[in-house]
């Protein structure tokens, strides 16, 4: 059972965060809120997301699991005004989700959860370097790097300390170095890994709206981006595997 009302902007944050990586997901509903964990089709990137009941204007639910077509939901949200409340209600059989706003009432057929990939097990990571930066700075760096390359290197030099982002193309390159005045060094350690900008560009569209992003790095290890949504009532973690270049 699920019956809830949520602000359109908050619901859009939720759907946008998921759609950056996957087109469908298993949504776990409980009395305390909703959650999902999903991996992209190439097994390169993963999202973990939790949204507390406090993020909703009204919320009543019991433990259940639904299969959500994220692409379809994004299309519906294109019809919703910025400040419109959205009413969500799961039917008794758990097969359809009613999405209502203004005078519109969509009845959405849910996906069979048996056809959706099982929730991935998050890897056990102990990434030694942790920094915090604004979402705008990180997203701007990703966009700038994509002009010259399809990959970007994240590096942390503990001797300065400095966090550096470098993108090198066939003929052009770009480098951004951030020091203590522009970034918060939570845990200082040597780190360097290379990542695909194809994934980071999609993540960046969501990350760029966040006031603060926590970045966890290692040496040739995945990177983790942690941030909040829904005025800190929701938590998102993006995990991206490194890109290994042949010698």
TrEMBL record:
> Is Ion transport a UniProt keyword of this protein?
no
UniProt domain Proliferating cell nuclear antigen PCNA N-terminal: residue ranges: 7-103
The alphabetized UniProt keywords are: DNA replication, DNA-binding
A molecular function (GO) held by this record is: DNA binding
Show the CDD domains listed in the entry. Answer: PCNA (cd00577)
Superkingdom: Archaea
Q: Which InterPro entries match?
A: DNA_clamp_sf (IPR046938), Pr_cel_nuc_antig (IPR000730), Pr_cel_nuc_antig_N (IPR022648)
Gene Ontology biological-process annotations: DNA replication; regulation of DNA replication
Give the multimer and partner information. Answer: Homotrimer. The subunits circularize to form a toroid; DNA passes through its center. Replication factor C (RFC) is required to load the toroid on the DNA.
Annotated family: Belongs to the PCNA family.
Q: What does this protein do?
A: Sliding clamp subunit that acts as a moving platform for DNA processing. Responsible for tethering the catalytic subunit of DNA polymerase and other proteins to DNA during high-speed replication.
What name is this protein filed under?
A: DNA polymerase sliding clamp
